[in-house]
Amino acid sequence: MSDPFFQPVSGFDLPRFAGVPTFMRLPHVSLDDPRIAEVGIGLVGAPWDSGTTNRAGPRHGPRQLRDLSTMIRAGNGATGVRPFELVNCADLGDVPPNPADLQDSLDRFTRYYSRIREAGIVPLTAGGDHLCTLPILRGLAADGPLGMIHFDSHTDLFHSYFGGSMYTHGTPFRRAVEEGLLDPKRVVQIGIRGTAYDTEDRDFAESVGIRVIAIEEFFKRGIEDVMAEARSIAGTRPTYVSYDIDFVDPAFAPGTGTPEVGGPNSFQAIQVVRELRGVNIVGADLVEVSPPFDPSGATAWLGVSLMFELLCVMAEQMAAAT
Amino acid sequence: MSDPFFQPVSGFDLPRFAGVPTFMRLPHVSLDDPRIAEVGIGLVGAPWDSGTTNRAGPRHGPRQLRDLSTMIRAGNGATGVRPFELVNCADLGDVPPNPADLQDSLDRFTRYYSRIREAGIVPLTAGGDHLCTLPILRGLAADGPLGMIHFDSHTDLFHSYFGGSMYTHGTPFRRAVEEGLLDPKRVVQIGIRGTAYDTEDRDFAESVGIRVIAIEEFFKRGIEDVMAEARSIAGTRPTYVSYDIDFVDPAFAPGTGTPEVGGPNSFQAIQVVRELRGVNIVGADLVEVSPPFDPSGATAWLGVSLMFELLCVMAEQMAAAT
Amino acid sequence: MSDPFFQPVSGFDLPRFAGVPTFMRLPHVSLDDPRIAEVGIGLVGAPWDSGTTNRAGPRHGPRQLRDLSTMIRAGNGATGVRPFELVNCADLGDVPPNPADLQDSLDRFTRYYSRIREAGIVPLTAGGDHLCTLPILRGLAADGPLGMIHFDSHTDLFHSYFGGSMYTHGTPFRRAVEEGLLDPKRVVQIGIRGTAYDTEDRDFAESVGIRVIAIEEFFKRGIEDVMAEARSIAGTRPTYVSYDIDFVDPAFAPGTGTPEVGGPNSFQAIQVVRELRGVNIVGADLVEVSPPFDPSGATAWLGVSLMFELLCVMAEQMAAAT
Amino acid sequence: MSDPFFQPVSGFDLPRFAGVPTFMRLPHVSLDDPRIAEVGIGLVGAPWDSGTTNRAGPRHGPRQLRDLSTMIRAGNGATGVRPFELVNCADLGDVPPNPADLQDSLDRFTRYYSRIREAGIVPLTAGGDHLCTLPILRGLAADGPLGMIHFDSHTDLFHSYFGGSMYTHGTPFRRAVEEGLLDPKRVVQIGIRGTAYDTEDRDFAESVGIRVIAIEEFFKRGIEDVMAEARSIAGTRPTYVSYDIDFVDPAFAPGTGTPEVGGPNSFQAIQVVRELRGVNIVGADLVEVSPPFDPSGATAWLGVSLMFELLCVMAEQMAAAT
Amino acid sequence: MSDPFFQPVSGFDLPRFAGVPTFMRLPHVSLDDPRIAEVGIGLVGAPWDSGTTNRAGPRHGPRQLRDLSTMIRAGNGATGVRPFELVNCADLGDVPPNPADLQDSLDRFTRYYSRIREAGIVPLTAGGDHLCTLPILRGLAADGPLGMIHFDSHTDLFHSYFGGSMYTHGTPFRRAVEEGLLDPKRVVQIGIRGTAYDTEDRDFAESVGIRVIAIEEFFKRGIEDVMAEARSIAGTRPTYVSYDIDFVDPAFAPGTGTPEVGGPNSFQAIQVVRELRGVNIVGADLVEVSPPFDPSGATAWLGVSLMFELLCVMAEQMAAAT
Amino acid sequence: MSDPFFQPVSGFDLPRFAGVPTFMRLPHVSLDDPRIAEVGIGLVGAPWDSGTTNRAGPRHGPRQLRDLSTMIRAGNGATGVRPFELVNCADLGDVPPNPADLQDSLDRFTRYYSRIREAGIVPLTAGGDHLCTLPILRGLAADGPLGMIHFDSHTDLFHSYFGGSMYTHGTPFRRAVEEGLLDPKRVVQIGIRGTAYDTEDRDFAESVGIRVIAIEEFFKRGIEDVMAEARSIAGTRPTYVSYDIDFVDPAFAPGTGTPEVGGPNSFQAIQVVRELRGVNIVGADLVEVSPPFDPSGATAWLGVSLMFELLCVMAEQMAAAT
Questions:
Q1: Best mutation site among E59, E63, E108 for testing chain B: the one with the most B CBs within 10 Å?
Q2: Which residues of F does the annotation place in the binding site for Mn(2+)?
Q3: Given an 8 Å threshold on Cβ–Cβ distance, is F250 in contact with D10?
Q4: How far apart are CA B59 and CA B154, in angstroms?
Q5: Can you tell me the distance from the alpha carbon of F115 to that of F92, in angstroms, rounded to the nearest whole number?
Q6: CA A281 to CA A243: how far, in whole Å?
Q7: Does B11 touch chain A (CB under 8 A)?
């Protein structure tokens, strides 16, 4: 079992509505804290949404996700995994953005995630909009391009917006491929749907070898079949998992900026994560939770439930690798 | 490709939150505008709910639907159809109701839709409550009774309410059959469910030959089978499509006056529209979106997503017929 | 047909938004009313939530459920059952709690339900949190332990909270088994999911013979198969039905204190009730609707729809038994 | 002291969230109830808003006002009046509207209030929109025109809307003067403000002698001075009091269809009612509370607080007159 | 009277909930429209909030303000001014921002307002956050520094944020003074309050001669006295009026990103605008309305009410100058 | 200046939406932390509402207050006080309640506040309901009865509820006087209003010498005069300040369980705190903020603004005493 210091506070001892809210009631250990060296998985908030092209709000995501995460208990009722006993987990706090300067924020994020990688910590990030994933990949892909399993209703593969702006939440994976952070042959995008500007993003995906699985195919083939393919694409090499909450149908996740109807329900949303067992995950994120569009926190509750499922898979894998 | 004048503003050029909101960012062309003659499909708002027997609100539907419709892009990601390139589409504005005089409103609507028909425009209407469909049918059925494919949780086939009131949102299709606007043999109602006053509506349906498909049958047989039957009932002659948002489960469409639990999800809600390909549609509507009961606009977002799917089917058919 | 006095007011006569709201627009007949002797099924409000360990609110459930219940009509559209014509139904009002004294409330509830049982009335209760079910069982299980079919995402079988508190909404069925109110061999819990403190509750279930059907098994086997087993477990002897609204996915039932994602949709939520036909039901409840967490009333609307389905099954059974 | 039957349930005995909600927890005594003859002041719901020209919703007012009214206690903390001990008060239920037929509703209301007058009951009505006051006056003004003290941000004195519709919530007092229900010389309108279509209403007021006190004058002179004039205008003969909740600033009363900024605060809103002492009130109403635009019930809470203040003044006067 | 083309649609003719929503139901005349030459006052939307340091949202302000502005009628009930009859007014649409590039947006705004100035139009802008005012001033101050009367709870005079970012909604007037767009001796800031980082902004104000009137002084001296001083400071030369909605107390204007309690009420908020009569206004704005933080639109309703009061003062002055 | 460790994080460095939310962005120092000895003023959360007789929710108060408190800056704009530079302030975390056992919670609280007193820390508590103040007083009044300045709309002086329950949020000060924790001659209650059960509380106040200032007297005399009397009643001996957020009008503080209309506005709410300068404050609280009834956080924002004003007065006094 991991260090008692790293165990979450139990709801049997302190009611869930009490206490300063850290992610899953874990200890708060910043990168400058001496105990940082003991951390295996770091939960990080990325409160930034300067890449958002329509409805802003994900900058408030980490705080609401922390709040709702106090309802997470220590064990996974379905799989039996108890992640906090397998790996030392901690809340690392938030990476500090500069909301008034997009490029400065990109640099701050990159430096922050480089430090995480250098500390040997596997990050599980709570966004923030999807542009956050670009500097995370810049920080993590130091040893060569990563694979990626990507759940989303959008490809985020466009070239630019508004007459040339190359850094928005619709472009991070175009940039990541161009910069050599991702190996397109090892990238799969699952759940794509909604109306389309044009086919530029799909054409790019095809040209570089990214596999795009539209929602119609997803529902037709079923989760097990699709995820087997996803694992096969990612292979055994280091892989990043990026989960945009708008992958899920907006009835289950209303609090997001660019919802697309016709998506998976919450049970399916969980199942795809459980099917990640065995993937060599070097980092993961849950992005685009936008509290101003869901004051009740329902979306954040689904979001932290998904983060916990990701954590279980990551902890199990790390414990097995030890 | 259709006239550039009739192309919607792109979110790549002007952010989606900017600009005066017309339906799908199309040009606003009123019936008195010289360019009305070039319009093939007219998007019309019907802000009227005097037929509502319980919770009013659909009078505010068109405005919220216009607002949310700014998030629609130019192409259908699943079917590839780009309706605005196939047919000249425009926002015709709202048909003017008289909220203080039900009969006057019925007459105003009838005259308005007669003009639309005479102008050779196929209307796609955003309600308003379901009584709106009665004067629309009065305006469109000039050449004999129409067929109808009707998605709803209620039959709207009752005779009268409150001691004799014959014009409410629970009676439009009873009136339409009585007035010879609909050919009951070519009418199918899909998704019926919820508690029942009595069987008067079902008895009427049976007596005149309207086909009623309850939600249990719908789920059991599946969408493809049910919609094949629906297309067969409608046949090749002119058919109207009426889509009450309460067809969809209230988790996906909370903003409506008479929700009934146990309905289709949003993916299924879309699929039934895509199965309308080939139907000879002379008009369609999406009704009963009630913004006061869904301030977040989630219901309107589903509503405009469905309107776009309807538009794709209609445009494809019209382009093929040319 | 039952007494006209016991028929609900029709929405054809008085609009659904009018009138003092009783459950399903039934007459209000308190336990002290002379006509109480004629009542077959009593709808009771249990406005109490002192057992809630996290987010309070179900104390407000009965009032909101009454409000939304005015949208229920007299017949079941799917099964054709018209319960108010089969059995005299009435709104008995609320059992009076003492929100400042947990043990006093337990005693008040027990006495109240003892009177109901003695009056030969079958209670259908609207909670309140799940601790309410404990004193209901104390009142009803006078002739020996009951069976129970229990829909929930939690087992509510824990021993104690907060250093020894034995009466919370996480413990009622542990107490009920210990007190001999339930026969654990005739208890089945359906829909269990979510994160877990530990396996203490599951271990207890196994040790006493309670059957726990997790949500994964539920989805895999399907409703008909699971419910056939449930009926078999309950057998023909007296059985209580307890329905925690958090059995349903929070997209369909957001207004509850401890939601767990990944649950059934509203159609499935209804179907399990319809599969209770033939069970010897001596009482039922619908608990944990929490209006402060769902001001729109969507959860209460689902709740009263489920109460109506329960009522149909109960009335049909009682009419058949006569 | 009045009959114990007519005393409200105390929050010391039954918590305020418990019980079927009647107005101020009073007994429900319909016009057909034998005990109706003992009632001195009748609280009536008028769930009707067919006269609303913009945002509907007041049809839901009575139910929400009843809900919030359970927080009213038995005594007036400031004046010491305990109305329920002075006069027998009861909740008479709702006057039944026909939401699909405006003229039928007007007739139903008129007959209902005629019966109230004939029963010797003084009505305190919870609207509904302001058109409700017209048939109330028709029912009450059997012995000649009444005076009126009217709190509102609008005069409601327009002739017609939408090309001739003479019955909307913007016209009731024009009709009432024309029909001889009100003596314009004994009518005062207080709090008028907001933008104006034109001066037609003000011109009419001036031509018939209605005194209009704009909000600027109200604030400048102060409540005591203005209300002294109001009492002087009403004189000692029978007077009706009509209180539109939009008299109050929308920060205090957001839930209404036509709010106008720049109004009185809630303390001032109460003070004007207390200054009605001594007026010969034969009926009063509180209208235009619109729950769909204030789900939290804040407006209804102010509304019932004002109804209680009205009730205190009315009860004190009736008790003094005995 | 002005051209009939420029008259708003009346609510007597078309209900206020109907029609495509332009500002105050005025015609939509873009800068490229031939009729732009006839426009005297242009209402402009500035949907941009990239300068926001905490809670974003004002990018959605113009759309919600247009929606609520449909409730504005043609005349000012208090002052009698009918602005649309005095000056040709039009909705010019929105100035197009680039949400992904702050400097590009500043340039786009500057060019847009330069064109407005060159067209001889006086702009009344609906923001957007307060950084919008900087490029507006750049566009308008072509002939030398302007005076400014500024209503706000913050001075917006800071030098920089987040380690050097000089363009945020906390810095526009520091920049405007530095760039020579404002004459600090002719600038007055009214309503300042709330907690403070430090005194850097106040020190700057003092050093350049900007007059800061804190809320305590405002309440103590009264509106007439304060506004007389404000008019005196502005003098007779060209003056800009900038109105941050957070000047008003958050009970009246909750929908804003940085509310400060203890502000004026809505009546006072209006009175200060009426006291601007006689000021030589060359442009005005109402900024910081943030719809995500006020879904009900109460803040936008106050905002458009204030815009109408500004419009009345501006139109009266322009008509007098002709 | 105080220790840099105890300075809050600046919004100039880290945006206000970022970071784990502690009270006012202060360091989190629990009672077991070695640095606790350096703390002068401790901000404590009291997440408990078991004393609430109607609408629960204040258990969630501390978390929402912490969230909103991140918008507090380091200095008081009006008084110039910079409390964090005068006294070492820290967030002590939450006192742990037992939501299932009222007496156990009372004991836990008493022990916790005894420790605070023994550590020489002056507590500023964020409730929680008003029953929390009883065990706080038990913990603090070790050296004899305290004086109290109490802002509230209720006296909270009742004897018991629900047939004898002596511990609710309507009874704490009755108990405190009976237990000798308060010296009634040095207690003043300000702002009392609303409807009344009876005069039992007022009679008790009079019998023991508590001074009750009703809201009518408060408005009539003005803040300066009333507060001068309050300071005189409290005198120079140790005094506790208890601030129930329902002292403020519900338009400014909607999120509370028992609102009473007709209260002070937010400017007045602040002014009364500033008038506490010179009082010998040994502890203070801000109670009854109920997030479920104000999801937007407006009430919490007012609440933390008031806590900051209290902190300024307390810090100034402590610094002066050194």
A1: E63
A2: 130, 152, 154, 156, 244, 246
A3: no
A4: 20
A5: 12
A6: 13
A7: yes
Give the residue from B10, B14, B16, B17 with the most E CB atoms within 10 Å of its CB, the best one to mutate. B17
Q: What is the pLDDT of residues E283-292, one digit of tens each?
A: 999 999 999 9
Provide the residue count of chain B: 322
F91 secondary structure, DSSP code = E
Per-residue model confidence as pLDDT tens digits over F69-99 = 999 999 999 999 999 999 999 999 999 999 9
- φ and ψ of C136, to 5 deg: -60, -45
Radius of gyration for the alpha carbons in chain B, expressed in angstroms and rounded: 18
Share the mean pLDDT of chain C: 96
Name the residue in chain C with its Cα closest to that of D96.
C14
Residue A130: phi, psi to the nearest 5? -75, -15
Which two tokens mark C66? 């009454």
Size of interface B-D (CB pairs under 8 A): 61
Backbone region of residue F163 per phi and psi (left: phi > 0; alpha: psi in -120 to 50; beta: other values): left
In a mutational test of the F interface, the residue from C59, C101, C131, C296 whose CB has the highest number of chain F CBs within 10 Å is C101
Q: Any bridge partners for residue B115, and if so which?
A: none
Mean pLDDT of B60-70: 98
Cα(D189)–Cα(C234) distance, integer angstroms? 68
Residue with tokens 């007055």: E188
Question: Does ipTM surpass 0.85 in this model?
Answer: yes
Answer whether residue D1 shows pLDDT above 60. no
For residue D76, what are the β-bridge partners? F195
Closest residue by Cα to residue C26 from C117, C96, C82, C92: C92
Rounded to an integer, what distance in angstroms lies between the CA atom of residue A113 and that of residue A134? 11
Q: List alpha helices for B133-189, DSSP H.
A: 133-140, 172-178
Question: Residue D8 is encoded by which pair of tokens?
Answer: 């409200």
Contact E18 B66 (CB under 8 A): no
Q: How far apart are the first and last CA of chain B?
A: 13
Q: What per-residue confidence (pLDDT) applies to C2?
A: 65
Question: Is residue A279 a contact partner of residue A231, using CB atoms and an 8 Å limit?
Answer: yes
Q: Please give the mean pLDDT across all residues of chain B.
A: 96
- The token pair at E162 is 């987040």
Q: Is E57 on the interface with A (CB under 8 A)?
A: yes
| H helix or E strand, kind and range, residue F121 | none
What is the phi/psi pair of residue C286, to 5°? -130, 110
Q: Which residues in chain A have their CB less than 8 angstroms from residue F59's CB?
A: 15, 17-18
Using a CB–CB cutoff of 8 Å, tell me whether A295 touches chain C.
no
E291: nearest CA partner in chain A: A292
- What's the gap in Å between the CA of F216 and the closest CA on chain D? 8
pLDDT tens digits, A250-292? 999 999 999 999 999 999 999 999 999 999 999 999 999 999 9
Contact A194 B77 (CB under 8 A): yes
Among C144, C139, C107, CA closest to C123: C139
pLDDT of residue A292: 96
Confidence of residue F3 (pLDDT cuts 50, 70, 90): confident
A98 interfacial to chain E (CB closer than 8 Å): yes
**Edge to edge, what strands does the sheet with A89-94 contain?**
A89-94, A41-46, A122-127, A281-287, A239-244, A146-151, A182-192, A211-214
Provide, as residue numbers in chain F, all residues whose Cβ is less than 8 Å from the Cβ of A67.
63, 67
CA dihedral (E223, E225, E230, E235) positive or negative: positive
C159–A contact, CB cutoff 8 A: no
